Structures are given as C-alpha cells and as structure tokens.
Amino acid sequence: MSTTSTAIPETMRASVLTGVGEIVMEERPVPRPQRDEVLIKVAAVGVCGSDVHYYREGRIGDFVVDAPLVLGHEVSGRIVAVGDDVDASRTGERVAIEPQRPCRVCGQCKAGRYNLCPEMEFYATPPIDGAFCEYVTIQADFAHPVPDAVSDESAALLEPLSVGIWASRKARIVPGSRVLIAGAGPIGVITAQAARAFGAAEVIVSDPAADRRALAERFGATRTLDPTKEAVRDLAVDAFIDASGATPAVISGIEAVRGGGVVVLVGMGADQIPMPIPVIQARELIITGVFRYTDTWPLAAHLVASGQVDLDSVVTARFALEDTEKALNNDKVPGTLKTLVVL
Predict the structure, then answer these.
(1) Partners of 101 in the beta sheet?
(2) Is the pTM of this model over 0.90?
(3) Which has the closest alpha carbon to 183: 245, 132, 109?
(4) Mean pLDDT for the chain?
(5) Shortest CA distance to 160 belongs to which of 306, 263, 58, 309?
(6) Which residues pair with 315 in a beta bridge?
(7) Contact at 8 Å (CB) between 149 and 305?
(8) Distance of alpha carbon 65 from alpha carbon 17, whole angstroms
(9) Are 17 and 51 in contact (CB under 8 A)?
(10) Which DSSP state fits 115?
C-alpha cells in the first residue's frame, strides 16, 4: 500500500446509526484499501433523502437497518493511499466518489448496466457502510478525478447530479425539448439544471410549495407552477420526470406527455399507484424508472467545471461530523435545499 507523506492514523471518527433516530460517534479502525482500491480522506458528504429515511424509519423497502450503519453516499475527498495494483501517482488526487461496487461479471454488468448488478454493494445501503466518517475506500476507477474548478462541496454533489444526468438521458432530452419535472426538492432542482444543460428549451417545474418553486426558478426552471391551482395535464411536454414520488403528480405528469413521449420515475412513493392506461396506450408513451446511474461522473464534473450546472449555490447548510444528527434533521428548517457534512 502506497501512502502520502502525512501519517494515516490507526483509528477515525465515524457517525453511526445505531437505531431508529439514534446517531452516536464512534472510534473505528481506518480501513485499508484492497489491491484495486484507494483510501480517501473525506472532505464533504451530502445528506440525501435516503439517509434521512434510514435515520427516521430504519428501512427503505426491502433494505432494513438491522445492525449499526454509517450513512452518507454523496462524497468527495482526497486519495491518501492506494492498493498494490493502483498507480501510486494517484496519491494526493482530489476525487468525487461513485459510491458503488458492482460485481463486473454478471449479465447486467457485461451489458453496461452495472447499476442493476444483483450483487451491488452501495454506500449506506444495509449492510454496507457509507461516508459519515473520516476515511473510506472505493475501487480506484470509481474515485473520479475532479478539476480545480470544482469545489469539494460540488464534488460531493456530483452524486445527485448523476441522478439528474441519468434521468435526462433516459428522458431522451435533446436541444429544444420541453420537459416537466414534478418536485422542487434537491433532486428536482438539480435535474432541472441537468435538463437545461442537455439543451431543453423549456423546463417546467411543478411543486405546491412557493419557496420550492422560487428555488427552482433560480436553478434552471424556465417556468414553475402550483399543481394544486394550475392544470398540468394540458402541457403536452416531450418528457416528464417525477422527482416527487407523489401519486397525483405521477398521474397528472403522465397525462401531460405528448404522443411518443417519455416518462421517467425518479421519486420513491407508494408501492402501487393507478396508471392512466388508455393515455399510455393511445399515446404510445415510454415509461421507465431510474435506479442510481451508470457512467455519469465525467460528464457531471464537466458540467460543473464549465459552469453549466451550479452546485455550490444549492448548498444551504453545513455541519461538522459530530453534528451529523443535526444535519439529518435540517430538512425541517424552512428554506433548506441541500445540507452537507463537512470534515
């Protein structure tokens, strides 16, 4: 294992979920990188809705927290050591982490759909620990270099931007597209920016909250609307991306798509919802989901470095590692968009 000249400690601080609504600080051994991995000193970690859900509910669908778990999967940092098979020149490199480890040999991986690998190990998804700690390891090719023009905070948020990029790809957004996005939370706002970067001529964001609509207008939306007061189904957009998970938003969004258009479901909502089947059939709509991402980090870094996407301004609150529990509860504060834990 090759390391920097700075000594790496034997132990590190970690913020650990020990039960529903219970976060404790622990001293844990610093992990050692395997032959194909790098050791990263964490710089910043974004708080995702999934982190909050695990913290408050102890589960998301079939993923149940039944043992202590470190949350956090939106990560940036600096490589401080490399495994035996990794070029030692990478030591000292600033990186953004793609927080997953596929098997690379199954049918899905070989088909280029490694996000659907049945053996996937993903940060902060039970039983795999995440990054609310001082050091993490990842396979070297999933530690993506970031240019100096990308801050540590933006580098951490390349993960949610990757969701927006993947949704925009699946929505088949091209220059001139008209796009409807439901939900002006962090993913909706970041996806709006991604859609504009893909060339969308019109990005309409719907959200019942006035403060969220104002944020969407600041970050990429060409128009916003209140779905409780304005009609959505008559918009005739080329693509609809749901980032809300709200059943009424999904149904009205599907009805807003023109013939031959695309519906992309990103938000997690009810396990079952009624679908407007006649509309889907008569318009030959394509309906698909988003489950993480594949090969998005290089483009995400380019969009931020080139100024086409602004992630720094999306951050509305920062907390120290020992205040991780406060960070997880910060979504209750009015005006909050994106919260970071900064080390």
Answers:
(1) 121
(2) yes
(3) 245
(4) 96
(5) 309
(6) 338
(7) yes
(8) 9
(9) no
(10) G
Q: What is the pLDDT of residues 110-138, one digit of tens each?
A: 999 999 999 999 999 999 999 999 999 99
- pLDDT for 270 equals 87
- Average of per-residue pLDDT across 44-71: 95
Instruction: Quote the pLDDT of residue 7.
Output: 84
Q: How far apart are CA 209 and CA 321, in angstroms?
A: 30
pLDDT over 70 percentage in the chain: 99
Would you call 118 exposed, middle or buried from its count of C-beta atoms within 10 A (0-12, 13-18, 19+)?
A: exposed
The DSSP line for 95-109 is EEE--EE--SSSHHH
Task: Give me the amino acid identity at 199.
Answer: G
Single-letter amino acid code for the residue at 46: G
Place of tokens 């030692």: 88
Residue 184: both structure tokens together: 């002006």
| 3-state class (DSSP) for residue 3 | strand
Q: Is the pLDDT of residue 4 over 60?
A: no
CA distance 161 to 292: 11
Q: At what angle do helices 297-305 and 158-170 cross, to 10 degrees?
A: 110
Phi and psi at residue 319, to the nearest 5° = -135, 155
Residue 215 contacts residue 184 (beta carbons within 8 Å): yes
